[in-house]
């Protein structure tokens, strides 16, 4: 079934795993999605999104959007979404839980808790 999306409404964060080993090696790939009020990814959006760890010792070590012509530094925490999606890579160096937050001036922000193991 094909669904037409509505206007951009908010950001949604989805982690590949929400528990990260505190070994200095493990990372969590957090997908930042631009969604409409029904939760559908809005693919024609390329808004600038910033991501950061707002609580705890985790760190956003890299971001990527998959756009072949985007030359933003890999280590930047501020990047445009591409087709409504952005990837943030989070790493831990301390045994405390963290909260990652994504913000955009165009829509509601989102946060996600990651657990240190």
TrEMBL record:
Matching Pfam families: Glyco_hydro2_C5
Gene Ontology MF annotations: hydrolase activity, acting on glycosyl bonds
Recorded superkingdom: Eukaryota
Glycoside hydrolase family domain boundaries: 11-112
Keywords tagged on the record: Glycosidase, Hydrolase
PANTHER family recorded: BETA-GALACTOSIDASE, BETA-MANNOSIDASE
Family: Belongs to the glycosyl hydrolase 2 family.
UniProt name for this protein: Glycoside hydrolase family 2 domain-containing protein
Organism: Colletotrichum gloeosporioides
